[in-house]
Amino acid sequence: MSTMLLLNGPNLGILGRREPAIYGTDTLADIEQAVADEVSEQGWKVLSLQRDSEGELVSAIHEHGPDSVGAVVNPGALMIAGWSLRDALASYEHPWIEVHLSNVWAREQFRHESIIAPLASGLVVGLGAYGYRLAARALLHVTGASR
To answer: Model-level pTM greater than 0.85?
Structure first.
């Protein structure tokens, strides 16, 4: 069985109660289940990791990356200045999709540029929790796993 990484950065562990007007009411557990449902038909399992520390996310990529087939990554605020996360993703040998719950371009100016997006296979923004499902579908597509 192939393993897909689902990586979530700082503050995403409190989804459901964190600014629901911006991030919605789905919890990270809800999102994890939706992503698992999306990829299960292809025989993939999901390894979901949420870390508030950039270094822990980097370690997770190094530890689990070689055994995975791809990833969906919501870096949270690390999209702005997560240089060590960017370097870890640059060395990740599989496709990955960047996802954001909110439309970052409709928000504050400092959120308008992701330093990791140029490395991603694709980007999904502004569709709330449903964006994770779309990112998982996109990952299946770019890896050739979708039927």
So the answer is: yes
